């Protein structure tokens, strides 16, 4: 793993060098070096300095801020599949640019499109943050998905109502993105926003390291999570200008197996879900909870590690167990009181993990023997 970063850096440098050589007119390394070293005007220098070099610099800047924004959001949301589009930044920027093109602002002012895109990204992220202000990370993701879907619908509407095919073509061309015909003016325009976004994101490094332990643990270490979240979101929107991918499982230990990367549909969410506890009249918190649908299967995830005691885990999120042929819960024995009245039969499944139905199958290595149940009576 230590060699990954140096190797990737070398690969980027090699590809950057090749990009200066490649094109409709291929140039030799000696020609490129001479053109960069000699300030005298020449065709080769014009091609390198005014065409290929700004394109290279802009691609490196955009790639760097996209990678940085993605890494920050993955740390903030604790989701390895997170990226700026998850919180609506990309869709908001697209909608802003489409508005500039659709209403003619782009034709009257060259800076209109990027400015509208930036404003759109900031507004989209701001709405997502406002909607999830009283919730946690899960609420932020769901709000971002909602905002992203709404912005994407606006883009689709603009394409369908485009006054002529040329306007639609211009919109699609912008949405697809291109580094063709980029100049130093584009580099100068993008650099301040990318630098601003990168600077804001850099300030989140310490907080994101602590956040890997969880929000409560991060707060106990002195991290202001309420300040960290908007800082990361603004930095992402400034730099980058429903259904979602989600990774679940595989967090307890190596015996639990690998995590699953799933495309899920969000059905419902609650910031303060709870279930009936083992003590009569008590309520055990489940934390933020969400109901998802994965290939026709309804799944409930919650943020507080807890066994399932009661059907409340499902019903509080709108899942009616009576309409289901099969319900699977993660629990040892405590679920029986709540689920037996609903179930025609109960089947125990012994799955890999840190606890098994047959304790003798656990790979203990440092216990004094003999010990029940490994060694019988």
TrEMBL record:
Keyword entries, A-Z: Cell membrane, Membrane, Transmembrane, Transmembrane helix, Transport
Transmembrane portions of the chain: 53-73, 85-105, 111-131, 138-159, 187-208
Domain of life assignment: Bacteria
Gene Ontology annotations for the cellular component aspect, listed alphabetically: plasma membrane
Gene3D superfamilies in the record: ABC transporter involved in vitamin B12 uptake, BtuC
Subcellular location: Cell membrane
Topology of this chain in the membrane: Multi-pass membrane protein
Main location: membrane
A GO MF term: transmembrane transporter activity
InterPro entries: ABC_BtuC-like, ABC_transptr_permease_BtuC
Any one Pfam family match given in the protein's UniProt record, by short name: FecCD
Sequence similarity: Belongs to the binding-protein-dependent transport system permease family. FecCD subfamily.
Descriptive protein name: ABC transporter permease
Source species: Sphingomonas bacterium
Taxon lineage: Bacteria, Pseudomonadati, Pseudomonadota, Alphaproteobacteria, Sphingomonadales
């Amino acid at each position: 793993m230590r060699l990954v970063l140096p190797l990737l850096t070398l690969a980027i440098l090699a590809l950057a060098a090749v990009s200066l050589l490649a094109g409709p007119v291929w140039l030799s390394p000696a020609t490129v070096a001479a053109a960069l070293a000699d300030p005298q005007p020449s065709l080769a220098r014009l091609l390198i300095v005014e065409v290929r070099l700004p394109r290279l610099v802009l691609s490196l800047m955009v790639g760097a801020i996209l990678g940085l924004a993605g890494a920050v959001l993955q740390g903030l949301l604790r989701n390895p599949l997170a990226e700026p589009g998850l919180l609506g930044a990309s869709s908001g920027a697209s909608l802003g640019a489409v508005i500039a093109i659709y209403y003619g602002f782009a034709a009257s002012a060259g800076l209109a499109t990027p400015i509208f895109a930036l404003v759109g990204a900031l507004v989209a992220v701001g709405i997502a943050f406002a909607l999830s202000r009283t919730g946690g990370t899960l609420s932020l993701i769901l709000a971002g998905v909602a905002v992203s879907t709404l912005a994407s619908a606006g883009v689709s509407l603009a394409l369908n109502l485009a006054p002529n095919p040329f306007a639609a073509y211009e919109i699609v061309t912008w949405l697809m993105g291109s580094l063709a015909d980029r100049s130093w003016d584009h580099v100068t325009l993008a650099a301040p926003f990318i630098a601003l976004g990168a600077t804001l994101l850099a300030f989140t490094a310490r907080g994101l390291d602590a956040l890997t332990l969880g929000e409560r643990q991060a707060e106990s270490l002195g991290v202001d999570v309420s300040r960290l979240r908007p800082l990361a979101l603004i930095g992402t929107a400034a730099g980058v200008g429903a259904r979602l991918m989600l990774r679940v499982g595989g967090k307890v230990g190596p015996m639990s197996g690998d995590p699953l990367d799933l495309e899920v549909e969000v059905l419902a969410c609650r910031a303060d879900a709870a279930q009936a506890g083992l003590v009569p009249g008590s309520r055990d918190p489940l934390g933020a909870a969400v109901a998802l649908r994965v290939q026709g299967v309804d799944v409930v995830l919650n943020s507080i590690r807890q066994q399932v005691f009661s059907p409340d885990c499902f019903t509080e999120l709108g899942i009616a167990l009576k309409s289901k042929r099969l319900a699977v819960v993660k629990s040892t024995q405590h679920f029986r009181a709540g689920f037996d009245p609903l179930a025609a039969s109960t089947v125990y499944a012994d799955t890999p993990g840190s606890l098994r139905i047959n304790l003798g199958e656990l790979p203990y290595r440092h216990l004094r023997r003999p010990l029940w149940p490994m060694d019988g009576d």
